[in-house]
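Look over this record before class:
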Amino acid sequence: MKKILMLSALVFVTVLFAAGCAGAAGELVSSDYDIAHITGDSVLQIEKGMTYEEIFTTLGKTRDAGVGMHVAQYLVDEGSYLNIGYDDMNSENPYSGEEWLDLTVSAIGIRGEVTDISEGEDRVTILVEGEVQEDTMYDKASVTVGQDTVVAAPDGSPLDMGDIKLGDMVEVVFEGPVAESYPVQGTAMIVKILG
């Protein structure tokens, strides 16, 4: 009986500890959150030895994009993803902000010409065709542009989805994963019209 009580107490404490850790992580990083948009300057505030909780408090709430482990994902300066993998919010981070910036990856899914536009009720779908470049992933993509998509002019000023025209050169940052068909299909987080 004594062993059963001790085992029950140990399980109870473990569950409480796990719930506390999950609660802290869930408040700052969650698969339900949108990807936070941050600046490179904010990443430079990260210091070696900071806990991941301190980092995410500094950078702000964001999406957990991990599968099997936690990966806090941030969009840095609207052009690259910072993916911070961690197991425990209280673990110490081994990198400086400068080193984290060196680990960012291009967020631009495709850069190319709009060759087709299909208008829907509250969205448009554009077909974008280009060449895979050093900082892009795809050569052809069917891109859904919705109400939450940021459409921007070359200088970064905001535009409407109706401002996208056939023949425009655009850069697309996708919101989350794309369907790996050909062409790939995905929803745009950002469409920047280059000209």
